[in-house]
Specification:
The complex is a heterodimer of chains A (276) and B (291).
Chain A: H1 2-32, H2 36-41, H3 53-59, H4 64-95, H5 101-110, H6 116-129, H7 136-161, H8 164-172, H9 177-188, H10 190-206, H11 209-214, H12 223-234, H13 240-275
Helix pairs in contact in A: 1-13, 3-13, 4-7, 4-10, 4-12, 7-10, 8-9, 10-13, 12-13
Chain B: H1 2-35, E1 38-39, E2 47-48, H2 52-59, H3 61-93, H4 99-109, H5 116-127, H6 133-140, H7 154-183, H8 186-194, H9 199-210, H10 212-227, H11 231-236, H12 248-257, H13 262-288
Antiparallel strand pairs in B: 1-2
Helix pairs in contact in B: 3-7, 3-10, 3-12, 4-7, 7-10, 8-9, 10-13, 12-13
């Protein structure tokens, strides 16, 4: 009796919470398939007719198609390179003994504390002098640089857990340091590398501030900057339908990712702080 | 011979990370410290003005206002996130060993993965006075006297931005705390239950004291993330009305990229860094005092 009351109140509390989280998202989905008149005049009702016109408008007229493709390109390339470059550094910092190992590790640790807002103006000027403003490769390089500290520390912890025997066996068999890394350690570290990739995927797909500073040209803007533009530039004559469709476009990749990798994401984000 | 090739390989493995990190993270950060001592608009001459940028801040009413707003966000958000995420985590933990645990955990964590920009815009459409869901719902349930321009009035704008921040942030911390709760050995709780402890007593005397470490992590994270809020006030209210929702982060951006006062923006950036470091140290000090 006591127990079922406890479950009931817990359920009520969590169902209210779930409604608060899910209903706004569903509202966006529903509005994205309504026509403009219904959005304005019947905001709370289900659509009378379902239209995908908002999506074509968002993709073409509002330019979100370009933004979506730019975001996909930036995210894919940046995440792959982040994982490879961080794994190389993390492997050496975890396994090799050399003179300035601790110093180098500490320098990377500082990066976890430096806020983007500190370096904002000088970073823009640096990129400007390197001709990397409005450039997708430029944005990718900056994303890699700002993800390194976090990813390297995540992967050092991972490499530390891999037993030394396999690596030693490979060295005895005559593998050089590069072969040991690529053929032995990299495959062994795969679960850790996947976790790192998932985290960086979500972080970079959602990143806004750096892209806002470094990209002002419409052709190279990423999806978050494009979306924010619709809102700030159009203001009162916003095409609401296209805006809702654009929001859905920005939700889709991360939501699919979440459905597939949920367990890894939740466990990965809690492991470090709970055990550490 | 083997020694040098080993050294060379270490160098090569570290090189790409080191180059990118030093060039794009460390160099601009050091530049910001130096630039804060100059009057510089990005083009033209750079004039050394010593600490004048820092003196200017004290007299800059807008800077003081944004600093105050940042503290106001911290004052409201940190305790609210803490209380809400502990309550949510403890409630979810009641469903240990049932399918509900996973279901509620997945839903609670969900907002964390959505783009901040999209969350801000989603809520901005809900708060919209003309066709937004909130005013629509209030009208339907007969509370139409509460309908208002949520983001446009000083009385409601700040609370609305805080609400959206909570919506975006709380789930992540709830799951963090939940993971810590699930780590608590079950026999302690069972022993208490046999001794006749109620759920409330179990929470207050066993669960919450055992969560001290994780709460410290949550406080530091929330403090730092509250300092850093940017897209919510920018996209929901543009910092208005009358800068009542504009935090210091948004002011740095305004000084650098609207007014092109790169020197002054860097000086505020340095203060921002100091605040971030202070937040972490203060939290460590308070929570470690009892040990």
């Amino acid at each position: 009796m006591n127990r079922s009351i406890k479950y009931l109140t817990s359920h009520i509390f969590l169902i209210i919470l779930s409604i608060l989280i899910i209903v706004p998202v569903i509202w966006v989905f529903i509005n994205s398939v309504k026509n403009s008149a219904d959005i304005l005049l019947k905001p709370l009702e289900f659509p009378t007719t379902i239209t995908f016109e908002n999506y074509t408008n968002a993709w073409n007229e509002a330019g979100l198609g370009t933004g979506f493709i730019n975001s996909i390109i930036v995210t894919m390339i940046a995440v792959s390179l982040i994982v490879i470059i961080s794994a190389m550094a993390a492997y050496v910092l975890s396994r090799k003994k050399f003179k300035y190992r601790i110093t180098i590790q500490n320098i990377f640790l500082i990066g976890l504390m430096l806020p983007t807002f500190l370096a904002m103006a000088p970073l823009f000027l640096l990129m400007n002098s390197l001709n990397l403003v409005n450039s997708i490769p430029g944005l990718i390089l900056v994303y890699i640089a700002y993800s390194l500290s976090f990813t390297i520390f995540m992967l050092i912890a991972f490499f530390n857990q891999i037993p030394k025997s396999l690596e030693e066996a490979a060295i005895i068999d005559g593998c050089g340091p590069y072969k040991v890394f690529w053929k032995v350690m990299f495959p062994l570290a795969k679960p850790g590398l996947i976790s790192a990739a998932i985290f960086n995927f979500v972080g970079i797909w959602n990143e806004y501030i750096l892209a806002l500073i470094l990209i002002t040209d419409d052709a190279t803007k990423t999806l978050p900057v494009k979306l924010a533009n619709i809102m700030m530039v159009q203001q009162y004559h916003t095409d609401w339908g296209a805006l809702y469709a654009g929001l859905v476009l920005s939700f889709i990749p991360v939501t699919i990712f979440y459905l597939i990798f949920q367990k890894k994401l939740i466990e990965g984000s809690t492991a470090g702080s709970v055990k550490g | 011979m083997k020694g040098t090739s080993e050294k060379l390989s270490i160098f090569i493995f570290l090189l790409p990370a080191a180059v990118l990190y030093l060039l794009f993270v460390i160099y601009p950060s050091i530049q910001a410290l130096l630039m804060s001592l100059y009057n510089w608009r990005g083009l033209g001459t750079k004039t050394w003005i010593g600490l004048d940028n820092y003196k200017r801040m004290i007299e800059d009413e807008i800077f003081m206002q944004t600093l105050k707003v940042t503290f106001k966000y911290i004052f409201f958000q940190v305790p609210l996130v803490l209380i809400l995420s502990i309550s949510i985590a403890i409630t979810i933990s009641h469903f240990l060993k049932t399918k509900w645990l996973n279901i509620y955990r997945s839903i609670t964590f969900f907002p964390y993965i959505l783009p901040g920009v999209a969350i801000a815009m989603l809520w901005s459409t809900i708060f919209n006075p003309v066709n937004g869901m909130l005013n629509g719902l209030l009208d339907v349930i007969g509370l139409d006297f509460l309908m208002t321009e949520w983001l446009g009035r000083t009385e409601t704008a700040f609370g609305s931005v805080v609400f959206v921040n909570l919506w975006a942030m709380t789930g992540f911390y709830s799951i963090l705390i939940l993971a810590a709760i699930l780590n608590i050995p079950q026999d302690i709780l069972e022993a208490a239950e046999i001794d006749g402890a109620t759920n409330f007593k179990k929470s207050v005397y066993i669960t919450i004291p055992l969560l001290k470490d994780i709460m410290q992590v949550v406080i530091i994270f929330t403090l730092i993330n509250t300092l850093k809020i940017f897209e919510m006030p920018q996209l929901l209210t543009s910092g208005g009305p009358n800068r009542s929702t504009q935090p210091i982060s948004l002011y740095i951006y305004e000084q650098a990229f609207t007014n092109f006062n790169f020197g002054y923006a860097s000086a505020i950036g340095v203060i921002f860094l100091v605040l971030t470091l202070m937040a972490s140290m203060l939290t460590l000090k308070i929570t470690r005092r009892g040990d």
